[in-house]
Design goal:
mainly alpha
Length: 209
């Protein structure tokens, strides 16, 4: 279970990439006071955790409701994760998460941006959701489910800490440093996407025999 914990944590952290959200977070909160920015970071972490926990435990039922097989989910999820990784490598993290100029301008007018667009779609998107649904099916025991749930809670806390420290991280790492880290994570994420696509195709072929 320890191996599962760290494997899921590493993969999910790479897919979510909260470090890549730092410049976007700062761009959306230019006039916030320190307490306001800290409050937004805390709310974002909570919403992020609840969203991923909800999809992790209810994702399989959602697939069954729409008649989507898990092998198709693996292939589609692999494509989304691959796309997310490409976005990280190409330096288009925000654009890949549906955060464009219009969304940023709208966020500047909103009183609370913690749920949308920060928690979703910036941090919890199709890539992380599909990855968690796949993990739920690949590790069916309740012990494994609790381990993955613990990873989600821990990652939500890390999201809060990273956004709370966004100004300091940006000063230390700078735009170039954050992009360099995103590119490294992008390579890992693309590898995960390819792996899930291959696993989905193999499973689908096996079911057709």
């Amino acid at each position: 279970m320890i191996e599962l914990f760290f494997a899921v944590l590493g993969a999910l952290f790479s897919v979510v990439n909260p470090l890549g959200a730092v410049p976007v977070f700062l761009a959306m909160t230019p006039d916030y006071t320190v307490p306001e920015r800290n409050s937004t970071a805390r709310s974002t972490g909570v919403y992020f955790t609840l969203i991923l926990l909800g999809f992790f435990f209810a994702g399989t039922q959602i697939l069954e409701f729409f008649g989507i097989h898990i092998s198709a989910m693996r292939i589609a999820g692999g494509v989304m994760i691959l796309s997310s990784g490409y976005g990280l490598i190409s330096g288009k993290f925000a654009e890949n998460r549906a955060i464009n100029k219009e969304v940023e301008e709208e966020a500047l007018q909103k009183q609370d941006i913690s749920f949308a667009p920060l928690a979703m779609p910036l941090l919890s998107g199709p890539g992380s959701i599909s990855y968690l649904i796949t993990q739920y099916n690949e590790n069916p025991s309740w012990e494994a489910h609790l381990v993955v749930a613990a990873v989600i809670v821990l990652l939500g806390f890390l999201v809060y800490l990273i956004l709370r420290s966004a100004r300091y991280l940006y000063k230390i790492l700078g735009e170039a440093g954050l992009k360099a880290l995103s590119r490294v994570m992008g390579f890992i994420v693309m590898s995960l996407g390819v792996q899930y696509m291959i696993a989905g195709v193999i499973q689908l072929i096996g079911e057709m025999k």
